[in-house]
Amino acid sequence: MILKKQLFKIIILVFLVILVATAITRLIPPVQSPDENVHLMRADMISHGQWLLLPGTENKGREGGLVDSNLIVFIESMMGISGNSASKENTPALVSDLGQIKWAHQQNFANAAGTGYYLPIIYAPHALGLFISRKLDLSMRASYEITRALVVATSLAIMGGAFFLYTPNVLFIMLLTTPMALFQLNSPTIDGLCTAMAVLAIGLWLQVSSSDRYRNHGELSWQEIGLYGLILVLCAARTNLLPALLVPLALAASQPTRQRITAVLFMYLLTVAWIAFGISTTHDSRVVRDYTTVNILINYLINPGEFFDLLNRTISDFEIRRFYRHSFLGILGWLDTPISRQAVRVFSVAIAVTALVLIAVTPWRREWPKRATFLLIGIASTLLIFFALAISWNNYPSEKIWGVQGRYFLIPMLFIAASIGRVEAGGRISRPAEKVVLTAFLIYSLYVLTTTLAAQYKMGSLYF
Fold it and tell me: Which residue ranges traverse the bilayer (predicted)?
């Protein structure tokens, strides 16, 4: 009887999640998430067997590949409504008209240099959706919707699997359900996938480290191998997450078997090799600077004080800090669809108060090594966001670090939030007060997100 009730609750929850995801995706036009255009192009390359980027016309390095010509037209046309200066009034008509285009089955070269640093495996759901759509010769709109559905479903499935291993605290879930987090989770980029994989990595670490097989026998399990694979993909997709390599190190240090040390070293080797390959072979023509990334990297490593002075000038700027806060919570689209300032204040206060309460009641001495590791990963990953942009996206010397967006901080903040409260596998949110807070936060977040999207793009007219 108890199992039937639990199964019924799971079915209801899954139904509600699918219903909410469907409603959100109906309100977001194609190609309106940052860098979605190049992610879709890279996925199309992979879908017909081009695993790595190809050199461009200047032959300076890998920067693009062959993409279906009509998919390029669809993507570039939808980019016409992105940005603050673009008119959004005709969005429904544009989506309807462009969506009728079929696959050309002819390919043109397209630049997608910014994706050259990512392992192809992270595009598996995107590539599968485009592959199926091309074989069925569907319209561009149908192809896009199938691809988005596969990407979103994959992200939700990964996150659902993580929640079976570990129930995060209230703050953690609030961070996952801000308007920005929900918007990215329901867009076919890699942001939602990376977030879901980070949550699963946290759950797997807590599960593995508390298992009898690990603690009493020191054996290497398939869960642990899966954890190492997740961290490899995450570090390749988000280099600022390199501090997550501390997790395998902590496992190996606690139970140093030959098999585990070999697995960790092999994973480290693959991670470093891929990142080195991506940096050395990818040519990004979008960034024109006086010095190369390697030159700037070496300079900041030799003179770390120079970088920290640059960082201090950046975060000391009030307007930049405000942009980080607003874009973390809800400057949607290509930074052209902001939620209201009142909503930003409500979310900021709710998250801050929740964090303070949890910090006050957390038994910090219990499981302190894990808490310290979570905190270190989160803080170091945050610093690496600024460092990565300073060496790859800014000229040298620079007055401030430009290009950082609030959404970049979500995964580091999740690691920091994971250090608070319970740090054990299993468990569930059972306190009525926590359930009320989460329900209210989620309802308000969904209201703000849907009303903002409806007012901006008016996509509802396509369905109602």
Answer: 7-28, 149-177, 189-208, 263-281, 343-361, 373-393, 405-424, 436-457
Among residues 181, 173, 155, the alpha carbon closest in space to that of 422 is found at: 173
Of the candidates 193, 235, 242, 173, the residue with the CA atom closest to the CA atom of residue 36: 193
- Find all residues with CB under 8 Å of 45, minimum gap 6, and list them: 53, 65, 66, 67, 112
Residue 218's SS3 state is coil
Q: Note the Cα 17 to chain centre separation in Å.
A: 19
Most confident of 215-219, 302-306, 379-383: 379-383
Q: Count CB atoms within 10 A of the CB of residue 48.
A: 15
What pairs with residue 62 in β-bridges? 55, 282
Q: What angle do CA 61, 67, 70 make, to 5 degrees?
A: 145
Contacts of 16 (CB under 8 A, 6+ apart): none
Residue type for 411, please? I
Q: What is the mean pLDDT of the chain?
A: 90
Helix (H, G, I), strand (E, B) or coil at 136: coil
Can you tell me the distance from the alpha carbon of 439 to that of 441, in angstroms, rounded to the nearest whole number?
A: 5
Start-to-end C-alpha separation, the chain: 41
Give CB contacts under 8 A, 24+ apart, made by 356-363: 358/169, 358/170, 358/171, 358/420, 358/421, 359/420, 361/421, 362/420, 362/421
Neighbours of 120 (CB within 10 A): 16
Gap between the Cα atoms of 25 and 240, Å rounded: 29
Picking from 113, 180, 185, the residue whose alpha carbon sits closest to that of residue 149 is 185
226-230, 253-257, 412-416: which has the minimum mean pLDDT? 253-257
Q: Which residues contact 422 (CB under 8 A, 6 or more apart)?
A: 167, 169
Q: Tell me which DSSP letter residue 186 carries.
A: T
Question: Minimal CA–CA distance to 47: which of 63, 62, 67, 64?
Answer: 67
CA atoms within 13 A on the CB side of 64: 17
Instruction: Kindly report, residue by residue over 32-88, the tens digit of the pLDDT.
Output: 999 999 999 999 999 999 999 998 777 777 889 999 999 999 999 999 998 877 788
Long-range contacts of residues 346-355, Cβ cutoff 8 Å, at least 24 apart: 346/444, 347/178, 347/179, 347/445, 350/174, 350/437, 350/441, 351/171, 351/174, 351/175, 354/170, 354/171, 354/174, 354/437, 355/171, 355/417, 355/420
Domains of the chain: which residue ranges? 28-462
Spatial CA neighbour of 232 closest among 280, 275, 281 = 275
Give 266-316 pLDDT, tens digit per residue.
999 999 999 989 888 887 777 667 777 778 888 899 988 999 999 999 999
